[in-house]
Amino acid sequence: MQEIILDIINQFGYLGIFLLITIENIFPPIPSEVILTFGGFLTTYTNMNVWGVIIAATIGSVVGAIILFVIGRILNAERLSRLFDNKLGKLLRLKKEDARKAERWFLKHGNKAVFFCRFVPIVRSLISIPAGVAKMQFCSFLILTIIGTFIWNVVLVFLGRIAGNAWETIANYVDFYTMVAFIAFVLIATLAGAIFIKKRFINTAKQPTDK
Question: Which residues have C-beta within 8 Å of that of residue 167, sequence separation ≥ 6?
């Protein structure tokens, strides 16, 4: 995949970076660290400009985030709560209130979540969906997304430029950070799932039934 990414950037320049980062936001497995650090490296010997790379990457990030935000808006809490009423929802012991609780939490902490999650690989893309589901104000979402992604892009592009021919070393360090973040995400999701199962299945089964 890395060779394909490098070929696209070499061939299409800013447009290639924009398209790759847009896709990366929708499909997180595409490594943004490779796109951004290599883009920074290209500015050392081509006509590409550092700020041009950063702006192209930021626009791509924002476009991808908006697409996921719209998907979240289409899903919305009302539709999710109705899904919880079907057979699968009942089998999984999901309740309408679960969707409402998640929505209320996001409305309370959404601004911080959208901003700080922009610095966490994988989650930085996915956070746009719950923002849409919770009907977060689009203006706030857009501003926080632009600021967060701009900072992320500035750091990686400049690191790629400073590293020069050793840009892959920076990409590898960020890749390690991505792996650690992914493991942490899986552990948190597993813990949350275990708590949910204990609360909805085990504890419920232990409750005495009325005679």
Answer: 37, 38, 40, 41, 159, 160
From 75, 69, 77, select the one nearest 132 (Cα to Cα): 69
One-letter amino acid identity for 146?
Answer: I
List pLDDT tens digits, range 130-142: 888 888 889 999 9
Cβ atoms of 24 and 64 within 8 Å: the answer is yes
Band of pLDDT at residue 22, cut at 50, 70 and 90? very high
- Say what the pTM is: 0.75
Residue 153's nearest CA partner among 12, 59, 67, 69 is 59
Q: How many CB atoms lie within 10 A of CB 149?
A: 26
* Contact by Cβ (8 Å): 181, 120: yes
Kindly report the CA angle at 6 between 70 and 179, in degrees rounded to 5?
65
pLDDT tens for 106-161 read: 777 778 888 988 887 777 878 888 888 888 889 999 999 999 999 999 999 999 99
Residue among 33, 54, 41, 31 nearest 10 (CA):
41
In this structure, what DSSP letter does residue 27 have?
Answer: S
Q: DSSP characters for 78-129?
A: HHHHHHTTSHHHHHTT--HHHHHHHHHHHHHHHHHHHHHGGGSTTHHHHTHH
